[in-house]
Amino acid sequence: MREMIEGILAEACRRGASFADIRVTEAEGTSIAVEDGQADKIHSSRTSGAGLRVLVNGAWGFAPTNLVTRDELRRCLDDALAMARAASGHVTDPGMVAQIQPVEATVAAQMRIDPRGVPLADRVQRIFEIERVARERDERIVNTTAGYRDAAGTLIIANTFGTWIEQEAVRCSVRVMATAQSGEVRQFATESEAGPRGYEIIDEIDAEAWAGGTADRALALLDAAPAPAGKFDVIIDPRVCGLLVHEAFGHNAEADAVWAGDSILAGHEGEKVCSELVTIVDDPSIEGLNGSFCYDHEGVPGRRQEIIQAGVLRGYLHSLETAARLSAEPNGRARAQSHQDEPIVRMSNTFIEAGESTLEQMIADTERGLLLKGGYWGYVFTARGQFTCNVENAWAIEDGKLGQHYRNASFAGLTMEMLSRVDAVGNEISFDLGGMCGKNGQSMHVDAGGPYLRIRDVVVGGQQAVGRAG
Amino acid sequence: MMSELVDLAQAAVDAARVAGADWCDAFCSDVTEVSVEVENSSINYCATIRDQGLSVRAYTRGGQGFASVQTLSLQSARECAQRAVAMSRAAHPDPDFVRLPERDEIGEVPGLFDEELAGLGADAWVRWCARGIEEARAVADDAIVQGGAGAGWGESALASSTGIAVTRRGSSASLYFFVIINRDGDVGSYYEHDQARRLADLEPEGIATKAAQQALRQLGSRPIRTARLPIILGPLATMSLVGSVIGAANAESVQRNRSYLAGREGERIASELLTVREEPHVPAGMRSSPVDGEGVPTMPRTLIDAGVLTTYLHNSYTAFKAGLAPTGHASRSGYESTVGISASNLQIQPGERTEAELIAQVDEGLYIAHAGLSPNPVTGEVSTTADFGYRIERGELTTPLSTTLIGSTADELLGGIDAISSDYREEPGFIMPSLRIVSVQVASEG
Predict the structure, then answer these.
(1) Contact A311, A285 (CB under 8 A)
(2) What is the number of other CB atoms lying within 10 angstroms of the CB of residue B61?
(3) How far from B196 is each of B18, B144, B370, B433, CA to CA, in Å?
(4) N or C terminus of chain B with fewer C-beta within 10 Å?
(5) What Rg, from alpha-carbon coordinates, does chain A have?
(6) Is B189 strand, coil or helix?
(7) H helix or E strand, kind and range, residue A373
(8) Could you write out the DSSP letters of every residue in B52-107?
(9) Rounded Cα gap, residues A173 and A176, in angstroms
């Protein structure tokens, strides 16, 4: 295999590529779906292939294959070179890559329990038991689903710098959803656990607290009022903080957007861009989080990157190309969904560092506002810095006390203006947003978190205006 | 090639039956794609992808096993079938599973595969992207252009243990541009696209021009006051709303009690002005097909008739569970996906006055061109941002919007439709007029 891969890379250089890389993957996975007491869907997948990228005359060409043979890789090389040459006549801003030292490494999977060694019947039974806790919680629970997924395999990364990395990878995830109904009102809650770890993720779950707690949240939402509309001081929980820092901010710090003129952060390195209470970090080296990894898919070690330090913009998240374009050190942020996709800049584990306040202090100190808990989804238009985040719960805060419970609130704003209005940062952080991020048609494993945070004057899009909260 | 694909699918079905499946089907495909990327106003990247794969769905006592593989060979097809059956044996029996659909007569829908499009080389797509950059720069010489082009074509085959053996060829292409104009810290941006199955239906010229013109109009965006206001949804925002409501009518979610449309078949869910047709046989329609993802013939139908939800969307499992015939809405998005439910081409019946006339009648309101106006499928609630829009003041579009959110429910939005435009945006198979909604809660910073 190595001789074949390195031979193809050498041929790429002989045929005019200034850089080339190949990723070879092989993986197998199982998923189990339990709904309303039946584990009636079990799926098995096998994926394999290679993705070959070349840089020729400043243009990138890419061609993958599902068959890793010498003939197929030669065909891919022919195609990738042809693609690059088709593009190169119209390139006005030539592509480039940062020069790095080659890496030779073998990376083992981080797992205590190999999911492939757990009998399928045992895995099915475990997910069934988790779903049963949610289903039997209350007669108003009208639907429950639990989903399990594992994937195990290998990834080889090789490039014309001489890098050769062989990684063994395993991932497990589990998700539960409970739908509650009372009269015409239906509400739901979800919970998930995921990471580049083994079956211990599922083993370690306290089903009663985890699945039962999810059902309890759905039930509580039945009695919550529709969210209010207007401008509020908000306190956000770590999950919403993770959603905010990933969606509203993190995508702006991906250097491909910066270079492309599609980020509000472009040109502001070294400047104060938000509250000095805010320090934002992206770090793939934190063990066991959903966005953790050793090497990115260009073979660059993933290292901690402080993006904002005490309100000052310090750096971006880079691929080999963006690092070259912006004269920065590569920091290992290029990943691809599969061998059929090219590596693009992605976040890893993104969070706001802890501060000094406590939640109790923040609430006590808030005259009128909302406590937002449970981030669901979000997105951003990076060029304008306009984002939207949707949350599961909100509680009114009046004169330092929690009041009315609301449901389903989106809040939006201009990212850097909002981060400039942060005036309290909690003293404990947690990561609770392990999931998938979508960008340019690719999904990628990420995580996010932070502390409780208070932000002044945030617009919330509810169903009825209440002026200030309450 | 097509006969080879169906032979392979049939071989997988045969192997699954030998392995003990009660019912089974197999799907395989061989697809080629070309894509070009534009970043920072330059062609950056060009790719060609050939993807082949096969999957098998097997049922044992109603329990479903599914397996997929990324190669096309007899050996891998048989192995995949055996894996699927093993999965089905490990699944719990499902007493609600009845059977897979029987073979039926199917028609033809012309225009789904275009030789000319499939034969177009990467050079052509690169040239169109380069032309788009020039167009945008002709509108604003400081425009930053992102975008790209993509074309795909290929063949697929489906075989089942009930005798279904279907092959299909298809092609499609799209071109899109997102233009950014940054002037002294004020940013205007906008997105425009075109898509088609046939080269003759694609209009690559003018997409970037429109995006750049709208990006200029988006400069100077401001928030507005928080208030209940009438809103007009442009064609794409309208389809975002209507499409997601149709999506919530999928019978699996309804039967499982995780859809806000459960129990509402045959009831009014929208203003009587709203009629939505589904037309799966439009020649060269983007979602046209003579059969659904299980080989069941598709048929045109009215999904919302003068505001009344006429039917849920079924695959064979949900239909037979309910004692009904399948409605032709089973969907697969490739060999790695199992069978879901979705609608095909949606056509909203236009109204009697133009969009301009609808706007002219509004003294104060919002015009929303793009927004993720999708009610949550479980709750029916909406809380989201008007991504690209304008204030309406005294019957005219004025200031572009910034940080403006909508909070509502599907019932309120659809029930509040008081006008639908006579003019519409058309993409192959889809008809998208604009809608006016009487009153919606708007939240903003003003």
Answers:
(1) no
(2) 14
(3) 42, 26, 21, 19
(4) N
(5) 24
(6) strand
(7) strand A368-381
(8) EEEEEEEEETTEEEEEEES--SHHHHHHHHHHHHHHHHHSPP-TT---PPPP----
(9) 10
Q: Do A459 and B65 touch (CB under 8 A)?
A: no
Radius of gyration for the alpha carbons in chain B, expressed in angstroms and rounded: 24
Return residues 267-306 of B near A (CB < 8 Å): none
Enter the tokens of residue A95.
């592509």
Phi, psi angles (nearest 5°) of residue A78? -55, -45
CA–CA separation, B96 and A286 (whole Å): 46
Q: Which residue of A has its CA nearest to B134?
A: A90
pLDDT of residue A465: 86
In three-state secondary structure terms, A59 is strand
pLDDT for A467 equals 54
Across the range A284-312, mean pLDDT stands at: 97
Instruction: State the best of A52, A66, A96 to mutate against chain B, taking most chain B CBs within 10 Å.
Output: A66
pLDDT of residue A470: 44
For residue A394, give the nearest of A470, A450, A449 by alpha carbon. A470
DSSP-derived letter for residue B353 is B
CA quadruple A286, A292, A297, A298: dihedral, nearest 10: -10
pLDDT at residue B373 is higher than 60: yes
Query: How far is residue A200's CA from residue A56's CA, in Å, rounded to a whole number?
Result: 45
Cα of B439 to nearest chain A Cα, Å: 11
SS3 for A337-361, per residue? Answer: CCCCCCCEECCCEEEECCCCECHHH
pLDDT beyond 60 at A402: yes
What is the CB neighbour count within 10 angstroms for residue B351? 23
**∠ CA A214-A218-A220 to the nearest 5 degrees?**
110
Residues in chain B, total: 446
- Chain A residues with CB-CB distance to B87 below 8 A: 42-44, 120
Q: Find how far residue A435's CA is from the centre of its chain.
A: 6
For tokens 């074509």, what's the residue? Answer: B153
Contact A262 B372 (CB under 8 A): no
Pairing of strands A453-460, A422-425: antiparallel
Q: Is B398 on the interface with A (CB under 8 A)?
A: no
Nearest-10 crossing angle of helices A120-135, B74-90: 50
pLDDT in tens, B238-276: 999 999 999 999 999 999 999 999 999 999 999 999 999
Sort strands B23-39 and B144-160 into parallel, antiparallel or unpaired: antiparallel
In this predicted model, what pLDDT tens digit does every residue of B97-155 receive, in sequence order?
Answer: 999 999 999 999 999 999 999 999 999 999 999 999 999 999 999 999 999 999 999 99
Residue B155: its H or E element: strand B144-160
Query: β-pairing, B227-233 with B276-278?
Result: unpaired
Report the alpha-carbon distance of residue A84 to residue B179 in Å, rounded: 24
Nearest CA to B412 out of B237, B269, B202 is that of B269
CA distances from B165 to A197, B77, B101, B102, B331 (A): 42, 16, 12, 11, 16
The β-bridge partners of B393 are B364, B396
Task: State how far residue B117 is from chain A, nearest Cα, in angstroms.
Answer: 17
Cβ atoms of residues A307 and A215 within 8 Å: no
Buried b (16+ CB within 10 A) or exposed e, B149-162: bbbbbbbbbbbbbb
**CB-CB under 8 Å, A48 with B70:** yes
Alpha-carbon distance A257 to A237, whole Å?
28
